Amino acid sequence: QVQLVESGGGLVQTGGSLRLSCAASGRTFSSYAMGWFRQAPGKEREFVAGISWTGGSTYYADSVKGRFTISRDNAKNTVYLQMNSLKPEDTAVYYCAAGRIYSGSYYSQRSYNNWGQGTQVTVSS
Predict the structure, then answer these.
(1) Strand duo 68-73 + 78-83: pairing
(2) Please, where are the H alpha helices in the chain?
(3) What's the chain's Rg over C-alpha atoms?
């Protein structure tokens, strides 16, 4: 397993941008698929974005497609979530996740077995 630590959350106005970072420990980081999930108060954790081992494939929830971009830098053991055109409904705790996904779904949290502590993103109107 890898240890994951998110950073970059904060308070931003509607229409603003934030970039979340997820730093991973472990020399096998490049062999993990990575994902971002979020959870708002009173709601279930939901998929936001995913990226394959090499970054060749990306996946997005319909609610963020066109606004968010997931990327990874395996040399830095880091995955990013660039969030643009933020909306109040994007307010949530954002979690970074890692998993060895061979044939499973990038959209399912069950596909990931490593989770960060979460970072709060608040978008004000």
Answers:
(1) antiparallel
(2) none
(3) 13
pLDDT tens, the chain, 125 aa long = 789 999 999 999 999 999 999 999 877 777 899 999 999 999 999 999 999 988 889 999 999 999 999 999 988 989 999 999 999 999 999 999 999 988 889 999 999 999 999 999 999 99
DSSP class of residue 103 equals S
Write b or e for each residue in 51-77: b if 16 or more Cβ atoms lie within 10 A of its Cβ, otherwise e.
Answer: bebeeeebbbbeebeeebbbebeeeeb
**Residue 28 CB neighbours (<10 A):** 12
* Contact between residue 90 and residue 11 where contact means Cβ atoms under 8 Å apart: no
Sheet holding 3-7, edge to edge: 3-7, 18-25, 78-83, 68-73
